[in-house]
Input
Amino acid sequence: MPAIPQTFLDEAYARALTGTEYELRATPQARNSVSGNGRPACCGNASCIPICPIGAKYDATVHLSLAERNGALVHPQTTAMRVEVGTEGRVTAIRFKRWDGSEGVASGKVFVHAAHAIETPRLLLHSRSEALPNGVANRSGQVGRNLMDHPTQLSWALSREPVWPYRGPLSTSSIETFRHGASRKDRPAMRIEIGNDGWSWPKGAPVSTAAELARQGLRGSELNAALRDQAARHARLASQVEQLPDPNNRVTLDSNERDMYGVPLPRLAYRPDDYVRAGLAAARAAHAEIFERLNGDRAPQRAGRRRPHHGHGAHGQRSQKLGGRPRPSQPRSRQPLHPRLGCVPHRRHGQSHADHRRAQPTFGRVGQSGIVAVIRTLFGARR
Output
């Protein structure tokens, strides 16, 4: 399949950064560049999150549809309530409830827990019993601990000349220079994403830009011209930084609040450490230099025109123990992988498996969903 082409905006950054340490690279894409397998080619909506509006980008529904066509039965609007463990220590069933109030029990030979970094430990912790007072698969006390994300430095500016964002996927190029090197002893690995989506992430633009111009009294052709001028110069950078595990960053059960089914809500404790903060500071400095170069010989934009913000990438990670032994274990680079499911086996409970993304030693610069999908596909092809 041909590569997704880089955009006019990417080319503008590449010219501005020529001769610097900021080497622009095309970003691999999990989306069709040509029609195939029932999915159309990307048409450049620049609105890929939460889903591609035309289905060109890969998401979980692709393999879900394949599974259904091969006999899998999907129960919508159904929530797992409790994991049942038999006297021999093996998972025997999952109790569930539906939105209409009905409930049932799902039994089987193999169970996969893939409810992300918050809901998976919530389910396991809630499934405690007299035999398992700390919850399922939690004799180590590590379930829910080491919650990670990729903390993100988000910055935006107005370029001097039009760069024409809002075309293509959300990002087609990035700067990977800072993924490796001696600097990692002082700050985390990071990547710099070049955003094709203008100010839509930080500001909700271009809709918010039109609203602001309208509040200033612009109408008709004047509004259109001003919107075109500003939107054409919207520039956005985002740096995701690696986060190390911290057992104090964790998911527990709330002692007071419950959901509509009576299950305790998750309670989160999360704090980026100094290592992460050093990475965000390095990202801010890099963003400032890049924006300076993008503006050429003109003074950097002021009065809120270049704004930094840091937050998180909403790709929760880890929160489960590595390995199958009943004592606390440290992150390690090699983790047993179920060959058909791409999942970590809870060896204490036999045929029960947890999504491999929840057991990464650290959380790197990008989410792991695509990697896990590839691993599962490769292992499935070998069976």
